[in-house]
Design a protein that fits this description.
This protein is α/β, with parallel strands linked by helices. It has three domains: about 60 residues, 5' to 3' exonuclease, C-terminal subdomain (DNA polymerase, domain 1), CATH 1.10.150; about 210 residues, Nucleotidyltransferase, domain 5 (2-Layer Sandwich), CATH 3.30.420; about 90 residues, Taq DNA Polymerase, Chain T, domain 4, CATH 1.20.1060.10. The chain is about 50% helix and about 10% strand. The chain has 18 helices and six strands. It has a six-stranded mixed sheet with strand order 1-4-3-2-5-6, sandwiched between helices. Strand 3 and strand 4 form a beta hairpin. Helix 5 runs antiparallel to helix 6 and helix 15 packs antiparallel against helix 18. The longest helix is centred in the last third of the chain and has 28 residues. It is extended, with a radius of gyration of 31 Å.
Length: about 425
């Protein structure tokens, strides 16, 4: 590798010297030193010049790939003995490094707090919940629905928490064979609607805009919306990628939530929440409200300590209802015009395909990364930017094509083809309304 280098590890090598050529040189001269001792006997002029010009680079490359046997490493066999994992330490480490899947694997459900979750199945229980919520200064709430799209979701249930460790789940839309009798939605609307709309009682939620939109579509509006734990999590750590409730519970409460897949399944076995058994839904849904309230109690002092309270109260939370109104109002779309544009793009795509095949010298599937990689890097000999996980695969992502487009027209045309194909598909979508 001193001569050929290794692009994957940023080992430069000597320009123009590939792996096969490097092997032949070592076989002919015995070593790198032998190559330079007999440099004048190399007949290929360009190869000889590159070897001379980049000699220091070749020596550096050899040093970079040579294992240092004198590294100051102490060896203690006792340290290699198998030991029980320190789950708590691992959980903290994985949280710090944002290894979310491993963090979930090693975290344990928090047993420090005794949790009481209750289903509201009759009017007496609903009356008790009404009195509890009406006397509270604030409470956390969460909705369970049939879709992640708040404009399409049907309400399945509501959960509430007034203090950490206690929560109530009110099912209204579970629908499966043998489902227990639930309170009619109209009764829930009449009883809880005034509390939800009372601005004197603060409402706390995780991504509460979603719940607000769902409730409004089911004739229950919210007022007194004062805190969103998802927004608070982002303000406290904007560099973090995940701000979902499961991650918040792990990071700030040391608690492992029941995961959605555990109650609703995943993949081909997944069901919408209205098909989930109520006895399974109660702990899952109640926990959402409970953990949201617990996170609120952690976030409020942290926001104050970090000087973020004013930003939260005067910018972020007032923006929530503005975004809600924008999303629920929507925009007008000229479907006929979009379909017309889609047809226009179809014609442009056909011409682009002809141009791409002409530059490639053959027809191939432009949407196949493997076939495109073969054309770009094996037939046209364009410089490989990066490989895929498969040893024989070439990456043809946007970054690679953008770089190659500076020196060759074909990658630029492929980029344009991809963009137009996405637009064509989007504008042809019959679901525009």
């Amino acid at each position: 590798m001193g001569f050929s280098g290794d692009t994957a590890d940023n080992v430069p090598g000597v320009p123009g010297i590939g792996q096969k050529t490097a092997v032949k040189l070592i076989q002919s001269f015995g070593s790198m030193a032998g190559v330079y001792d007999g440099i004048d006997t190399i007949k290929a002029k360009k190869q000889r010049e590159n070897l001379i010009t980049f000699k220091e680079q070749a020596l550096l490359s050899r040093e970079l790939v040579t294992i240092d046997k004198n590294a100051p490493i102490t060896f203690d066999p006792a340290q290699l003995e198998s030991q029980d994992a320190d789950d708590e330490a691992l959980t903290h480490l994985f949280a710090e490094l944002e290894f979310r899947q491993l963090q979930q694997e090693y975290a344990k459900a928090d047993s420090a707090i005794e949790r009481h979750y209750t289903a509201i199945m009759d009017t007496d229980a609903l009356d008790r919940l009404f009195r509890l919520l009406s006397q509270a200064r604030r409470f956390a709430l969460d909705t369970e629905t049939t879709s992640q799209d708040p404009m399409l979701a049907r309400l399945v249930g509501l959960s509430f928490s007034v203090k950490p460790g206690e929560a109530w789940y009110l099912p209204v839309g579970h629908n499966y064979l043998g489902v227990p009798e639930q309170l009619p939605l109209k009764v829930v609307q009449e009883r809880l609607g005034p509390i939800l709309a009372d601005p004197a009682i603060e409402k706390i939620g995780q991504n509460i805009k979603y719940d607000w939109m769902v409730l409004r579509r089911h004739d229950m509006d919210l007022a007194g919306v004062g805190f969103d734990t998802m927004i608070a999590s982002y303000l406290l750590n904007p560099g973090k990628r995940a701000h979902g409730l499961d991650q918040i519970a792990l990071d700030y409460l040391g608690h492992k939530n029941i995961r959605y897949e555990e109650v609703a399944g995943k993949g081909k076995n997944a069901v919408t929440f209205d098909q989930v058994l109520i006895e399974k839904a109660v702990p899952y849904a109640s926990e959402d409200a409970d953990i949201t309230l617990s996170a609120y109690e952690v976030f409020v002092p942290q926001l104050e300590t970090d000087g973020l309270t004013e930003l939260m109260n005067t910018v972020e939370m007032p923006l929530v209802p503005v975004l809600l109104e924008m999303e629920m109002t929507g925009i007008c779309v000229d479907r006929d015009k979009l379909h017309e544009l889609s047809k226009s793009f179809a014609g442009q795509l056909e011409q682009l395909e002809r141009d791409i095949h002409a530059l490639a010298g053959e027809s191939f599937n432009i949407n196949s990364s493997q076939q495109l990689g073969t054309i770009l890097f094996e037939k046209l000999k364009l410089p490989v930017q990066k490989k895929t996980k498969k040893k024989t695969g070439y990456s043809t992502d946007v970054e690679v094509l953008t770089t190659l487009a500076r020196s060759h027209k074909l990658p630029a045309l492929v980029l344009r083809h991809r963009t137009l194909a996405k637009l064509k598909s989007t504008y042809a979508d019959a679901s525009w309304s």
